[in-house]
Specification:
alpha/beta
Amino acid sequence: TIIMKIKGERSLSSRLWLDRQINDPYVKRAHRDGYRSRAVFKLIEMDDKFHFIKNAKSIMDLGAAPGGWCQVLSQRSPSDARISAIDFLPFDFIDKVRQFCGDFENEDNRRKMGSYLGSKADLIVSDMAPSTTGHAQTDHIRIMRLAESVHAFARDVLEEEGTLVVKVFQGGREKSFLESLRSDFQKTCFFKPKSSRNCSVEIYVVATGFKKCN
């Protein structure tokens, strides 16, 4: 009886997810425009507001699969731009993009990504999130630890005046994270794209004007 109940709950959850996908206007737009996921519209909205892609020639995309953000970065960046993208999962080829499979926090992977760019990065974007547990506070702590790792990495590899975009979950620690970025960037703010579902706790931190570290 318990097993049947769990299966029934999963079936209902799956049906609700499928219904939401079918009726989601951003899913329909992504399919129509040839994008790999609805998440592209989050990056498009941020770039339309902050204009950080058009002059970026050295870009890192952390947590890149299935490649939707890479599509936008490739389309909106200069013709000679280079994009280093990393994820545990591979995805189909995209112009200007060199894929690296594995853990972003692995030092060897970080070195390879930087070597491909041949210079420091003008722009780092991260749509990464750890596998969720269903426990809100645990998930919040885990993604904030990941965001802090991205910040530490950015301090080493960002070019002066560079930009960092990173996803976090709302839950309390995101405010102190934003404060920690203010010592390294001229401007920092939270941004909730319209294409991010209302029920989602995700929010993005946009930090522009990286200050050269001593």
